[in-house]
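Why run this: before we spend reagent on co-expression, it is cheaper to look at a predicted model of the complex and decide which construct boundaries make sense. The entries below are exactly what would go into the expression plan.
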Amino acid sequence: MIGSPLDLWKEETLTKVLKRVAELVAVLFIVSLGTFWLVSKMDTDPAVTMLGEGRTEAEYAAVRDDLGLNDPLLVRYWDWLSHAVTGDLGKSVVPPYNGISDRIAGALPVSVELAVLGMGMALLFCIPLAMWSAYRPGGRVDRLVGAGALGVLSIPSFLAGLLIIMVLANGLGWFPRAQWTRLGDGIGQNLYHAFLPALTIALAETAMFTRILRNDLVTTLQDDFIMSAKAKGMGPVHIMVSDALRPSSFSLMTLMGIGLGRLIGSTVIVEYLFALPGMGSLVIGAANTGDFVTVQGAVLVIAVIYVLTNALIDASYGYLDPRIRRAHV
Amino acid sequence: MTSNATRESTRPAERPRSGTLLAVEDLRTVIHTARGDLKAVDGVSFTLDRGETIGIVGESGSGKSVLGRTIMGLHTTGPTTTISGRVMFDGRDVQSLGPKDLRSLWGSQIGMVFQDPMTALNPVKKIGVHLTETLRKHQGLGRTPARERAVELLDLVGIPDPRRRIDQFPHEMSGGMRQRVVIAMALANEPALLIADEPTTALDVTVQRQILDLLGNLQAEMGMAIILISHNLGVVAGRADRVAVMYAGRVAETADAKTLFADPRHPYSEALLRAIPRLHEPPHVRLAAIDGAPPNMVQPPVGCRFAPRCAYAQEDCRTVLPELEPAATGHLFACHHPVNRGEN
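The model came back. Tokens follow.
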């Protein structure tokens, strides 16, 4: 049914999307197999974890058999994977032995919200800062913002978080610390409690984003089309926002994609600092208690999110630059 | 094509069609670089009448592009640049204007066409936006009228099927088409002056001619004055009323085009003319080249800038900088020992 250019375009798009999906599935397969293999090498024996001290040989053998630990790795992997695709990630091997999917369903929204809020804030801060710096490279604002970014980057996030708690929660009393309200219990309360941890995350990201975007803006502003926009009488704000920003945001988008995936699994420090029930706490807690099933499930979910986010970021390049819309992928 | 009624209503004001539009007086642009002060434009004076075309010719690095940008006010005195002399445009001193006044001048009173159409358009913006943003800024047009006018402009510069083209991106067009868009952009608000900086250098030869013809036709229709900057005398021939030959930041010779081509007095002009390949000459003959390279403009030669490369240079050429002197009405040259002396 290839006739009009539109049909052709649909055909091409469909092929591209299918190709992309196949790639993603392959990546997830490799990641999950890798995780499964690594976790199986953990030196804690889940049967021992479950039974504790006073166990008999027979009980031990029965539990190992029940958990499928005597099967070959690939059989166990297949067993786990076939359940995982239906949304069943198994049960925890430590008390209270609850379902892992439920535990992740509880922790994931916290981490996703923190990551998204933190990224959103960072984006909101970095765009005006980068534009202001790039307007006069080497000028006073540029040097001040550059030094500030370097300073923020060199502060470890636990220290930044402690400072934020000291000033904004304990000192000024504007925000609560160490509380969490679920999104379902009212968005106002939820944002109020999420603000400080999100700000802690946003600080370091802002510093990084600002430097990257500023550099790309400075390069873009040397381009001929900026001169030609200027020669049309367009003002500096118009040129920054409408001409320079989009062609300068590739590195920023890439960094955001990587960052978003990374943050969901690794905001442990911030979660600890603010006592938040997120993915980081879940994974660390599970790893410490030898709860290998939970680690497996959580890592798989994080990997899925990571891969999907980066697929979205890749798709956004087409929006940023129309020249690559039909070129590849 | 365009109904006259809408054209007239969008025109800022009816302008006089004669008289002096631009007066450049002893203009100097010094760019401060790490290696020293670069005298890119070093004392240039000329005037341009409304509707007139002046061709500015010189080799790379002769300061012609910087001259164009200084006239426009794109270069202003600041940490990296010092400008002296005066540019009077339509009775206003361009260098004394603030950034806001300059922006209201750019794109509305003075338009600029750049050398490379492949890079002069923003790759992420549709053709239409390039045109409508300047129309909306300078004429205060709404979204729909601006788009209508943009379609008319594309039609005016000879882009076929403008209603479809307006929604395309620059990369979907050829170089020649893009240069037409750049011209439409520069002329959108019917400026009194168009500065065309090497408008055809990046295009292939057949397209070059089309673009130059287009500029000529638009000039006849809109009546703007043109500063046509080129390294190629052939481009300027037949298009410019007057020609100024620039060398090392200074005008070496200026005359009306016919005189300059027929009777060059400056050895550099003569050498440039000889470097143009000619059809009636026998094939496989080595083209006349000018030996040497343009001088370092951080430390230009003390005397005549061209002396180190000049076949006729004498002792005084290396010590005394020649000033522009009249040979005849409107014909000026800066040379101690001019060529073609007896033919006048």
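Chain B has a mean pLDDT of 87. Chain B has two domains: 4-240, 246-343. Bring this page to Monday's planning discussion.
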